[in-house]
């Protein structure tokens, strides 16, 4: 697949590659369930993360589910989910990361979210990217699982071109011929991290949850990503991982999420 050329850097990616996007020193750690399931579980998870020093809470209120059918066990709580996230923000002082799947929802989701998540499937949805950019919020731009680095940075350029350089790139796994796991569709592209850093000062974080679909290897893939230069991590965690409504195979128990956070910080500090 075609990838970045010197001409792209000059003509097509002038904003993404600009030195003015000064890399911040922060380490971005985001934890929480795939989807907001209930006020009680969301608060249980969030309060432990907050006490451990984790700043960002993630949880889907609107989900890009593979099939159009919904039932009560899938917990796409929509407005109710946003209200729960809003309470967590007010009561615990955490920053909220949640996905926007529809251009018509951007303003509403931005009332609650500190970081608007663009899901992998929407990386190519340029009108959605532009609408999100105009809120001036931080944008977590997940890489499409089949996207080249050229296409991914091109999507980021759309956001910067609307006057918002607060983009956080997120590597969330790509499709490959083999994943070594009968349940997994993707594999973490660790190589992309140093390549991203070669071209842009925008932060890049790793999502070991969706790139592994296996809670047993979330920790080592996190550490590999941080060792390769990732500026942060987004991890799915749950009080009862095997009962999680969505993505139960990758959710780690909350104490493990905290442990991964602490070790990832140490790796980051060691390599500084
Ligand atoms: C998610 O973060 O829950 C999610 C759906 O991720 P992705 O868009 O990477 O599949
Ligand atoms: Mn998920």
Model description:
- By secondary structure, the chain is an alpha/beta fold.
- It has one domain (26-271): Aldolase class I (TIM Barrel, Alpha-Beta Barrel), CATH 3.20.20.70.
- It has ten helices and eleven strands.
- The chain has helices at 6-11, 39-51, 79-92, 106-112, 126-133, 149-160, 192-199, 208-212, 218-227, 254-271, and strands at residues 28-32, 56-58, 95-99, 115-118, 138-142, 167-171, 174-175, 186-187, 204-206, 232-238, 252-253.
- The chain has a nine-stranded parallel sheet. The chain has a two-stranded antiparallel sheet with strand order 7-8.
- Helix 5 links the parallel strand 4 and strand 5 (138-142).
- Helix 5 packs across helix 6 (149-160).
- The longest helix is centred in the last third of the chain and has 18 residues, at 254-271.
- It is globular, with a radius of gyration of 17 Å.
- The protein starts with 5 loop residues before the first helix and ends with a helix.
- The model has no long low-confidence stretch (mean pLDDT 96).
- Bound molecules: phosphoenolpyruvate and manganese (II) ion.
- Residues 34, 210, 236, 246-247 line the site of manganese (II) ion.
- Manganese (II) ion binds at residues 34, 210, 236, 246-247.
């Amino acid at each position: 697949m075609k990838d970045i050329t010197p001409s792209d850097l000059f003509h097509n990616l002038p904003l993404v590659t600009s030195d003015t996007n000064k890399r911040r020193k922060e380490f971005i750690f985001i934890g929480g369930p795939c989807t907001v399931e209930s006020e009680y579980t969301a608060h249980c998870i969030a309060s432990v993360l907050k006490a451990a020093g984790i700043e960002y809470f993630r949880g889907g209120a609107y989900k890009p589910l593979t099939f159009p059918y919904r039932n009560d066990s899938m917990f796409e709580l929509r407005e109710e989910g946003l209200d729960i996230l809003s309470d967590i923000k007010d009561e615990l002082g955490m920053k909220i990361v949640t996905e926007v799947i529809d251009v018509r929802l951007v303003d509403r989701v931005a009332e609650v979210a500190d970081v608007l998540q663009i899901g992998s499937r929407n990386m190519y949805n340029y009108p959605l990217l532009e609408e999100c950019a105009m809120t001036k919020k931080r944008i977590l731009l997940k890489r499409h699982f089949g996207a080249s680095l050229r296409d991914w940075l091109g999507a980021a350029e759309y956001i910067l071109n609307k006057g918002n350089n607060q983009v956080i790139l997120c590597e969330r796994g790509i499709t490959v011929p083999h994943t070594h796991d009968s349940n997994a569709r993707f594999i973490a592209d660790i190589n992309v991290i140093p390549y991203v850093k070669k071209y842009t000062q925008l932060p890049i974080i790793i999502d070991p949850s969706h790139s592994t679909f296996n809670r047993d290897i979330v920790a080592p893939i996190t550490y590999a990503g941080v060792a390769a230069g990732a500026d942060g991590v987004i991890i799915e965690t749950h009080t009862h991982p095997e009962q999680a409504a969505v993505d139960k195979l990758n959710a780690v128990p909350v104490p493990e999420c905290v442990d991964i956070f602490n070790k990832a910080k140490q790796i980051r500090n060691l390599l500084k």
